[in-house]
Structure formats: structure tokens, C-alpha cells
């Protein structure tokens, strides 16, 4: 029997991160059941567990020597720690030692290759079935395509360097939107934008419904991810297509072309500058727009017909079980 202790807020440890919306969420019954089948259970006693688990990122307040000493003295924190996330919050290697007095910390995230297993792992829920194709008369004339972006403001994007390559895409999102806003080429929706650059926050109320309502007024949507890495494909590209927009996506350094054909979405990685992207959009004929968008719809509908969320979920949980046994077993 392997006992896991979830580090979360409002517990004895009092400085963790919530496990909500992760396989370690107490309400994730499928995960709890599968873990139990493999002899993995959760405990509420941090002194009698085999492994601490925390979601998203290594709690920064643990990095002080004072905090490390407190954890050692008060909670006998001599157990391994597993940091799990399906978001690119942590660029630590798969194992690292956060203190010479503790065992190594273990990481499962976007960059470790054992969390995202396909382009549908974290986005299967956003793929709508049987989207309609656009007729030529429904597509914008050349130079008339309306562009939208639903993105929060990131003032100083930090590099995410993995194997010597910066995988961060926030710098490109910010550059594209700042240029487009100056030229009045793009409408921005999102939080924290300065100088009234955003038309609205767009996060109020039901986010998914509001997003669809916004996208239906546009022809093209900036759908760049936070990072470019194998199988990090979120809802952005799928919701753009469902909202009737041709996505601007970043197709280098990931596996997106396993799902989408070339000549479907506008691939930002193929351009030398954001100005070149705008120039290309202006040069795109109504016919080309229609062909690109309908190829995206074809890819969407193929995915919707074959993706089994249960299989995806079970595969992810199986990887977690393997890693837990590799750490503790």
C-alpha cells in the first residue's frame, strides 16, 4: 500500500497549492478508483504517508532555509515529493534536489513527456462534433478579415528554456497584439491590458459561452498557446474553429501536424515577423481563406469522431501510477 498526502491550502502544512482539476483532486473519482486498484490511497496524515503530491509548481515559499527547517522539524519532511501539472508552470528537470536534507523532488509536467500523450489529452472536452463547413460567400473578402484575440496581458514574458530552446510563446502573442492594436487590426479581449487596449475582460459569467459569442463576430482568431512543446494543445485552436474563426497557431516544436494538415491554420512559426503575418492575412483571397478554414473543420470533425476521452484519461492515470511506483515502490 502506497499512501499519498495531497498538499493543499488550509491544511496542516498551510502553504501548498490546491489539487483542484488534477488527478489528485478528491472529487476525481475515476482517478481515486484506479489508484486504489493499484494499491495507491490518500491519507490525511502527513506524518504517515509515503509520498507528498502537489499540483502545478514547486511552492516558492519552501525555498527558504527557515521553511525547510520547519518542514523537517515539524513534519519529518523526509519523503519524496511529486509535482504534477498539465500546464507549463515548472521548467524543472524530471528530478531535482530542492534541499540537501530532503530526497529528490520529482516532476511530471508538459516538458517531461509523461503527462501529455496526444493532441487531445487536455483538450478533448473542447472538440465539438460535426461542425459545418463554410461556403465561399460566408468567407471574408481579401483584406476584410476581422481578427480577434482572447488573451490576458503578460507584461514581461519569461523564457521557458528546455534543452537549450525557448519554448515560451507569450512574447510572440504580446508582439502580435501590440502591433495589431497600434494599427487597429485586431480586437483584444482579456484581463490586465493597459491603456484600454482590451475591449472587455471577457472572463465574467460563463466563459465558454461568452468566448463563442465573441468569436462569431470575427473571421480569424489568434490561438497561440503559452508554450510550444509536444502535445501541448489546449482548447484554443478547437474553440477558434468552433467559433467560426480560422486560427493563427504555432506549428513548430510540437505535434500539431499529426492532427491538422498543412495549409489549414495560419502557422505563425513560418513567418519572420508579426508584420509578415498581417501582410499574409491581407494577401489571402476569399478562396484561400475558405479552403484553410474547411481543412480545419475536417480535422476537427475527424478528431471528434475518434477521440475517446476515457481512453485518454486512463492512459494519463497509468503514467502517474508508473511514476509513483518508480519513486516509492
Write up what this structure looks like.
By secondary structure, this protein is of the alpha/beta class. The protein folds into two domains: 2-117 and 310-327; 124-306, 3-Layer(aba) Sandwich (Rossmann fold). It is 30% helix and 15% strand. The protein has eight helices and 14 strands. It has helices spanning 29-37, 65-75, 170-182, 207-215, 235-242, 274-283, 286-306, 309-327, and strands at residues 2-6, 40-42, 51-55, 80-84, 95-96, 105-108, 147-150, 161-162, 165-166, 186-189, 198-200, 220-222, 246-249, 266-267. Strands 2-1-3-4-6-5 form a six-stranded mixed sheet. The protein has a six-stranded parallel sheet with strand order 11-10-7-12-13-14, with helices on both faces. The longest helix is centred in the last third of the chain and has 21 residues, at 286-306. The chain is elongated and about 65 Å long. 36% of the residues are buried. The model is unreliable at 9-17 (pLDDT under 50).
Summarize the structure.
This protein is an alpha/beta fold and 329 residues long. The protein is built from 8 helices and 14 strands.
Keywords:
329 residues, alpha/beta, Rossmann fold, 2 domains, six-stranded parallel β-sheet, 8 helices, 30% helix
Fourth CATH level, the homologous superfamily of the largest domain = Glycogen Phosphorylase B
Number of domains: 2
How is the CATH topology of the largest domain named? Rossmann fold
CA-based gyration radius: 22 Å
CATH level-1 class of the largest domain: Alpha Beta
Separation of the first and last Cα atoms: 9 Å
By CATH, the architecture of the largest domain is named: 3-Layer(aba) Sandwich
What pattern of helices and strands is seen along the backbone? EHEEHEEEEEEHEEHEHEEHHH
Low-confidence regions = 9-17
**Broad shape:** elongated
Query: How much helix is in the residues?
Result: 25-40%
Number of helices: 8
Structural class: alpha/beta
Q: Which percent range describes the beta-strand content?
A: 5-15%
Give me the count of strands: 14
Amino acid at each position: 500500500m502506497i499512501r499519498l498526502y495531497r498538499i493543499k491550502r488550509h491544511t496542516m502544512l498551510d502553504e501548498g497549492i490546491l489539487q483542484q482539476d488534477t488527478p489528485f483532486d478528491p472529487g476525481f473519482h475515476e482517478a481515486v478508483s484506479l489508484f486504489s486498484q493499484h494499491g495507491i490511497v490518500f491519507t490525511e496524515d502527513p506524518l504517515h504517508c509515503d509520498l507528498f503530491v502537489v499540483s502545478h509548481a514547486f511552492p516558492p515559499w519552501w525555498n527558504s532555509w527557515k521553511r525547510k527547517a520547519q518542514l523537517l522539524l515539524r513534519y519529518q519532511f523526509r519523503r519524496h515529493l511529486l509535482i504534477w501539472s498539465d500546464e507549463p508552470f515548472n521548467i524543472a528537470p524530471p528530478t531535482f534536489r530542492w534541499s540537501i536534507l530532503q530526497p529528490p523532488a520529482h516532476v511530471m509536467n508538459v516538458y517531461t513527456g509523461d503527462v501529455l500523450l496526444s493532441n487531445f489529452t487536455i483538450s478533448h472536452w473542447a472538440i465539438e462534433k460535426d461542425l459545418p463547413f463554410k461556403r465561399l460567400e460566408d468567407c471574408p473578402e481579401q483584406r476584410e478579415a476581422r481578427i480577434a484575440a482572447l488573451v490576458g496581458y503578460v507584461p514581461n514574458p519569461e523564457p521557458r528554456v528546455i534543452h537549450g530552446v525557448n519554448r515560451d510563446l507569450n512574447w510572440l502573442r504580446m508582439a502580435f497584439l501590440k502591433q495589431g492594436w497600434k494599427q487597429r487590426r485586431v480586437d483584444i479581449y482579456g484581463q490586465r491590458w493597459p491603456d484600454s487596449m482590451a475591449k472587455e475582460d471577457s472572463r465574467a459569467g460563463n466563459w465558454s459561452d461568452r468566448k463563442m459569442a465573441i468569436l462569431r463576430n470575427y473571421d480569424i482568431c489568434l490561438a497561440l498557446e503559452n508554450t510550444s512543446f509536444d502535445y501541448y494543445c489546449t482548447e484554443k485552436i478547437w474553440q477558434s474553429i468552433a467559433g467560426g474563426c480560422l486560427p493563427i497557431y504555432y506549428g513548430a516544436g510540437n505535434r500539431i501536424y499529426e492532427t491538422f494538415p498543412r495549409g489549414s491554420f495560419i502557422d505563425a512559426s513560418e513567418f519572420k515577423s508579426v508584420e509578415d503575418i498581417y501582410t499574409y492575412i491581407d494577401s489571402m483571397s476569399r478562396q484561400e481563406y475558405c479552403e484553410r478554414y474547411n481543412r480545419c473543420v475536417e480535422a476537427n470533425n475527424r478528431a471528434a469522431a475518434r477521440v475517446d476521452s476515457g481512453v485518454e484519461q486512463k492512459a494519463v492515470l497509468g503514467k502517474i501510477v508508473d511514476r509513483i511506483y518508480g519513486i516509492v515502490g
